[in-house]
Amino acid sequence: MSFPTARLATPAQARVDLSAIRHNVRLLAAHAGGADLMAVVKADAYGHGVVPVAEACLEAGATRLGTAFVREALVLREAGVTAPIMSWIVTPGEPLDEAARQGIELSAAAPWALDEIAAAARRTGRTVRLHLKADTGMSRGGASAAEWPALVEHALAAQAGGAIEIAGLWSHLACADIPGHPSIERQLDAFEDALGVADKAGVPSGVIRHIANSAATVNLPRARFDMVRAGIAVYGLSPIPEMGDFGLRPAMTLTARLAQAKRVAPGSGVSYGHLYVTERETTLGLVPLGYADGILRNATNRAEVLAAGRRRRIAGRVCMDQFVVDLGDDPAEAGDEVVLFGPGDHGEPTCQEWADSLGTITHEIVTRIGSRVPRVHIGGR
Fold first, then answer.
1. Beta-sheet pairing, 64-69 with 36-40
2. Beta-bridge partners for 376
């Protein structure tokens, strides 16, 4: 069955510039100062579309990819991505057999997880490359300092049996995006202590040591070790906004097309609760995006968009599928483009401005964009 072209048009899209992704990866590789670069593509590449983004990252020099969950890594393998991939959250019941068959590198922070991974390796006849995670002060994932020696010994025993290969030792920084925070040096000292314990226990010296996230990659040379794990910076969003953009290029531009433009009288209440009331006769534009698409409800009367040639603040309550902007007397009609955020090249708000106005971080803005909004990738090879 064929459809008229007009029916194939979408009311909104997230345009993702792959040339910006490649630029950012090259820039981050330079910041890494010789350390390998892992491009973190979890959560559908932070909402940017995992397969095209992963391919762009590898083209630009990333040496491996990182995902939170095994299933995310398997999506990449199914798409034909053969590069090394590490997945770091293992819960009971994960598809570890398939992970072993597909050569996914895994992480363990407790003996039970290591045992499940080793069992999967034995069932499939595949040695699993394993990264051991130390909790150096974030108090989230990872083995505590008291648990770490036993975990290392347990891993060495599994390695002697051929089920696993200890491929990495790693941790995660809690406050790398807060320059000068006292926990940073404490965590790096704790990580070096954990590395020393592993070395004395007999872990080979060639394993990959890694703790640096995006913020540490651009601002903490001591944290770079053998590999850095860049996440938000890959997408052109600053990991330390108060220090500037570090030359990064935002990759996503979120747009929609007006569903309606109409004149209303002075004193017209707009959207649920009439939280916005027009002061004079004006044109209201209806934007077909809402909180079901990831537009935060608290963007009501706060966040700005570019519409009819100027920035406009959202007028009234953000609804599930739509919100309104007050266009004044500027000409507008259904089908006109509205830019919610982008690189800022044409006067549109940036993702950082949205995050600042809503009291959150750019990570949340881009990862919340829902599946109803197609990702359109430009700037490919």
1. parallel
2. 15
Which residue in 88, 82, 30 sits closest to 54, CA to CA?
82
The topology under which CATH files domain 252-378 is Lyase, Ornithine Decarboxylase; Chain A, domain 1 (2.40.37)
Q: Note the maximum CA span of the chain.
A: 79
Question: What is the fold of 18-236?
Answer: TIM Barrel (3.20.20)
3-state secondary structure the chain: CCCCHHHHCCCEEEEEEHHHHHHHHHHHHHHCCCCEEEEECHHHHHHCCHHHHHHHHHHCCCCEEEEEEHHHHHHHHHCCCCCCEEEEECCCCCCHHHHHHCCCEEEECCHHHHHHHHHHHHHHCCCEEEEEEECCCCCCCCECCCCHHHHHHHHHHHHHCCCEEEEEEECCCCCCCCCCCHHHHHHHHHHHHHHHHHHHHCCCCCCEEEEECHHHHHHCHHHCCCEEEECHHHHCCCCCHHHCCCCCCCCEEEEEECCEEEEECCCCEECHHHCEECCCCEEEEEECCCHHHCCCHHHCCCCEEEECCEEEEECCCCCCCCEEEEEECCCCCCCCEEEEEECCCCCCCEHHHHHHHHCCCHHHHHHCCCCCCCEEEECCC
CA–CA distances in Å: residue 171 to residues 94, 102, 106, 191, 245: 22, 24, 14, 7, 25
pLDDT (tens digit, 9 = 90+) per residue, 324-370?
A: 999 999 999 999 999 999 999 999 999 999 999 999 999 999 999 99
- Does 252-378 match 18-236 at the fold level? no
The two structure tokens encoding residue 40 = 């973190």
Q: What is the pLDDT of residues 73-129, one digit of tens each?
A: 999 999 999 999 999 999 999 999 999 999 999 999 999 999 999 999 999 999 999
Which sequence spans correspond to the domains of the chain? 18-236, 252-378
Q: Which residues are catalytic?
A: 42, 272
State how far the Cα of 93 lies from the Cα of 85, in Å rounded to an integer: 20
pTM: 0.94
Residues in Cβ contact with 93 at an 8 Å cutoff, skipping those fewer than 6 apart: none
Residue 205, number of CB atoms within 10 A of its CB: 8
| Residue of 122, 86, 127, 85 lying closest to 107 (CA atoms) | 86
Residue 284 token pair = 């209201």
